[in-house]
């Protein structure tokens, strides 16, 4: 359940910005979650619902955008889409792909007032 | 398209509603505007476009950056003291503590060794390490399922580290959560016992993809289990082509020499550059 730690980091980032950008409440928190990241979306939403209480994001909605997993295939010499890390290259069925995108968890933006 | 967040693209959005903590609702934002007139609210996805003090802050912030900041601090702290750190990860019961106590018995004769033990509860593992006579710091994470760099940084301050030494961090037994948390280690070692099954790399890919060495433990039990060592290595290398593999038995001593050689290479190898 490391999703609680991740949401804790999200809320810390929001709190830091509430000081520097002078806002009191957050209407929406938008996260980008990579397909290849280690995050369980339902757990993330559950933890957000609990951890946001008492924070500037107390009434905020959580929007999660899925970021497609991408990897470089050495054989095909191109970037291919993979949905899970153990996928083979969809073009050549080979292994040993290097992940280039979709393994991140990003706080894309927040709507504040 | 919504001018505020540009969310008309072909993405699936999962929106948790403010009034329904923890609930899930999937919204497909296809080609058409689903927000309705400005200032109205569709479902829970309210934008309050007409309220003038409402604004959107584009952050593009890495959520793990806070942990990474502490990890870099640890890395610098260790670099200054010329101490190399290993992060040992595995499921519970793979044999991390047993391999460590066996390793330390010999290793401490020619190199300074220290250990940070991570467990949810109890000092049982740190007591086993302390019995070998090397400094040990216990972190009890309470309910947390992994160590993070901040916890390790606090433990580092309580340990006396000798220059040129090696520090083992025994992470909480878990093949999922520790994968995302860089502790500031020089290398990450994932351990897998033969009783767990040879397909674990495919089932828990992130932790194997982020490790530098896989130690297959308890190989003395191979005659009694269906564990295909070559298949296991192949699966791990699908995820991380460069991963090294060592097979050990703390009971019979098989592979322990190989592991010691690997440790020597790690200690003498290039450190982090700052």
List the helices and strands and how they pair.
The complex is a heterodimer of chains A (113) and B (274).
Chain A: H1 3-20, E1 26-34, H2 41-51, E2 61-67, E3 70-73, E4 78-81, E5 98-101, E6 105-112
Parallel strand pairs in A: 1-2
Antiparallel strand pairs in A: 1-6, 3-4, 3-5
Chain B: E1 11-16, E2 26-29, E3 41-42, E4 45-46, E5 55-62, H1 65-80, E6 84-90, H2 96-107, E7 113-119, H3 124-130, E8 136-140, H4 149-158, E9 166-170, E10 187-193, H5 200-203, H6 205-209, E11 213-217, H7 229-239, E12 244-247, H8 256-268
Parallel strand pairs in B: 6-9, 6-10, 7-8, 7-9, 10-11, 11-12
Antiparallel strand pairs in B: 1-2, 3-4
Helix pairs in contact in B: 1-4
Brief rundown of the structure:
The complex is a heterodimer of chains A (113) and B (274). Chain A has 113 residues and is an alpha+beta fold.
Structural features, described:
Chain A has helices at residues 3-20, 41-51, and strands spanning 26-34, 61-67, 70-73, 78-81, 98-101, 105-112. Chain A has 113 residues and is an alpha+beta fold. Chain A has one domain: 2-Layer Sandwich (hypothetical protein PF0899 fold), CATH 3.30.2320.80. In chain A, the strands form two sheets. Chain A has a three-stranded mixed beta sheet with strand order 2-1-6, with helices on one face. Chain A has a three-stranded antiparallel beta sheet with strand order 4-3-5, with no helix packed on it. The longest helix of chain A is centred in the N-terminal third of the chain and has 18 residues, at 3-20. Chain A is elongated, with a radius of gyration of 17 Å. Mean pLDDT of chain B is 83; it is low at 1-12 and 17-49. Chain B is built from eight helices and twelve strands. Helices cover 28% and strands 23% of the residues of chain B. Chain B folds into two domains: 8-56, no CATH class; 65-268, 3-Layer(aba) Sandwich (Rossmann fold), CATH 3.40.50.300. In chain B, helix 7 links the parallel strand 11 (213-217) and strand 12. By secondary structure, chain B is an alpha/beta fold. In chain B, the strands form three sheets. Chain B has a seven-stranded parallel beta sheet, with helices on both faces. Chains A and B meet through helix 1, strand 1, helix 2, strand 2 and strand 6 of A and strand 1, strand 4, strand 5, helix 1 and helix 6 of B.
